[in-house]
Amino acid sequence: MKRHLLLFGLIALLIPASACSGANAAVSSPSPQGDEGQEASDRSGGRGGDDEDGMKPYSEVITEDAVTDEGLFDVHSLDDKIFFEVPSELLGREMLLLSRVAKTPANAGWGGGKSNTSVVRWERQRDRILLRLVSHVNVADTALPIADAVASSNFEPIIHVFPIKAMSEDSAAAVIDVTPLFTTDIALLGLAARQRTRFKVRRVDADRTFVLWSKSFPRNVEVRRVLTYDATEAPSNAASNTISMEMNHSMLLLPDEPMQARRCDDRVGYFSQRNTTYGPEEQRSMPRCLVSRWRLEPSDAAAFARGELVDPIKPIVYYIDPATPEEWRPFLKQGVEDWQVAFEAAGFSNAILAKDPPTKEEDPDWSPEDARYSVIRYLASPIPNASGPHVHDPRTGEILESDIQWYHNVMTLLRNWFFVQTSAVNPDARHVDFDQDVMGELIRFVSSHEVGHTLGLQHNMASSDAYPVDSL
Q1: pTM of this prediction?
Q2: Rounded-to-integer distance, Cα 408 and Cα 62, Å
Q3: Is the pLDDT assigned to residue 283 strictly greater than 80?
Q4: Which residues of 147-177 are buried (b: 16+ CB within 10 A; e: fewer)?
Q5: Which of 115, 142, 305, 365 is the most buried (most CB within 10 A)?
């Protein structure tokens, strides 16, 4: 019975619901550029003037010495500065700003942990580009008159202002110096407030904070930097009064076509997001709950409709962290692909896969912090645990990527569980250290468990008493 309920839940996860409403609802906001921005664009005209404090010709800003990487934004590295070319067509588009700790001092977390996820948008205001923080707490369909009222009551904070240094040679993009975003104290991109309080952080030291590299891809931009704080209670090397860490920041364009959203149903335990929606059908504001789920679309819609198994256009892929011990990698992969049988019940073959990452020779740009990839991150942590978070599109609940946090000492937890729960009937559990195959099967179990969370599924506490002890 439990398996049937699980398969029913996954079918609900994967098959769009035509009856679901509100899929096109979005935060109502004014035009991202507005009349002022358009006037400024017309006034500045292409490459801009030669005013010392204003825009300059493109070639004077992005010189022949610049190293350029083309993608979502063209990114230019010049001396110690980073320039973005923000295309006009992307002004007003919502993007995920995802920050992860790549390398950290002892006692301040673990490399690979996510520190913040936000939604931002770029806007033009005269000869400046604004980076604004977007909220989806209150929403309305932008086609409705009430959307203006929702926007007026949810004014978006300005995170940073960037003077336009030049216009691109075809006048289609604004060139801005984004270096201050990564070298000054921007709370959104740094330590969480509780950590700043705990370590008694005084300031960001700009002389010891700098960008290591930046890369651009078709739908995301990645920036890696060293971030250094003055702190009177540093977590390690306390005599230095210093916290230095490497941070990775991803800016990921949200899907062009929002996925069909699915409303929550209390009978099926999914992670979800809640907001308040304003519309004409109800005579009051209404709470709205959307489940978190992956977008799977059949590669052959006709065959799928006939009930045949088909591969998805884009499968769910988890990469194994290169830092993972070799002996545990096969078991982690099995835990991922154990879910294939459930997806097959929903009509998809090869829907979820586990892979080794490419080598440096195969893909020198591959990084586990890159927002394009879902990774089982292996953390050198004494915490006996693992977790399965995910990153989703706040407009629809679509899961975009997931990085499972696999702490090294989860094996301690597994050893204790297996001993306490099964040693009375299972000789394999009556050892201080388990055989590799036994520990491997336990790792496979937790891998599958955490993947279930990253698919959007909550704990099923009621199932804990489904098996007697001699069947554990």
Answers
A1: 0.81
A2: 46
A3: no
A4: beebbeebebeebbebebbbbbeeeebbbbb
A5: 115
